[in-house]
Amino acid sequence: MKAPLIPSLNWLRVFEAAARHQSFARAGKELNMSAAAVSQQVLALETHLRSALFERKANRIVLTTEGSDFLPTVQVSLGAIETKAASLFALARVERVCLLASQLMAMSWLPQVLAEFETRHPSIRVDLLMEGTLRKTESDMMIRFGEEPHLVRHPMWLMGMSHVVVCREEDLARVDSLEALLSFKLFDVASHAVGWSTLLRHNFGPVDDRRLRLETVDTTPLALTMVSQGLGLAIGHLPVCGPLLTALRLAICPLVPRMAGPGHYYLERPTGRPQRPAILHLEKALQEAARTSMRMV
């Protein structure tokens, strides 16, 4: 096998740095080497090529004609190696944060917020898990939900909620009276503190529950999906439901005014664990995004 003309690729890195800085000393500072070591490696390269790449002058170095011709090829080649290495191996340097949230949060408000966060922090990736998942992973941060009024003063409070009636955009004109509303099937989420009876009584006074065509479902995303298929009406919650309403092309019925609370989302971190900067960056981003969402409600 023929011996390589350039047995050490590091010589090329040293040559490129020296040519760019036009100084062995400045190249050595960049590469964490002494000026003498840079000079020795350049000399070794020149010896193997049997051609001078620099003219050594009193206080500086100048590329020879051969060095000037050689430099662009070296720079392109080193750049290609760096680019390929970054595309193949950069993920190994990405820091991951595991975030646990409710199904509604994970399916509606969080995806766009996390996408924007990762764009601003390209070295951080957020693994989003939904409560109740079978995957056994220890979370770095949790978004919790509670109905206790004091949670509005929680130091890591994110947002409250307003209850609204939602329908398909094409059904909006039909929901123009209480009688019209009661002609629809009404999806009720079993776990919610505010259901159809409470919401209608709050806005219209006593309503005979026998007139309500109620159907109980497990989750808000399921209720909203059924509404999007023209099967009835549901109660949504702002601002957390906002992105899902937009994605499903659902509208808020103005007939029923928004009803505030109860319910609060807040952040929680495991105790007794060091808080990495990536986790603190995510915490700040979630709080800022929540403030923006609350102002828009």
Describe this structure in words.
- With 297 residues, this protein is of the alpha/beta class.
- It folds into 3 domains: 9-91, Winged helix-like DNA-binding domain superfamily/Winged helix DNA-binding domain (Arc Repressor Mutant, subunit A, Orthogonal Bundle); 95-158 and 263-296, D-Maltodextrin-Binding Protein, domain 2; 162-260, D-Maltodextrin-Binding Protein, domain 2, CATH 3.40.190.10.
- It has helices at 9-21, 24-31, 35-49, 65-89, 103-120, 178-182, 196-204, 220-228, 242-247, 277-296; strands spanning 54-56, 61-63, 95-101, 124-130, 141-146, 157-159, 162-168, 186-189, 214-217, 233-238, 250-252, 259-260, 264-268.
- The strands form 3 sheets. Strands 7, 8, 9, 10, 11 and 12 form a 6-stranded mixed beta sheet that branches. Strands 4-3-5-13-6 form a 5-stranded mixed beta sheet, covered by helices on one side.
- The longest helix is centred in the N-terminal third of the chain and has 25 residues, at 65-89.
- The chain is elongated.
- The termini are far apart.
- 26% of the residues are buried.
- The model has no long low-confidence stretch (mean pLDDT 90).
Order of helices and strands: HHHEEHEHEEEEHEHEHEHEEEH
CATH 4th-level superfamily of the largest domain:
Periplasmic binding protein-like II
Strand content: 15-25%
- Radius of gyration, taken over Cα atoms and rounded to an integer in Å: 32 Å
Structural class: alpha/beta
Number of helices: 10
Total number of beta strands: 13
CATH class wording of the largest domain: Alpha Beta
CATH architecture of the largest domain: 3-Layer(aba) Sandwich
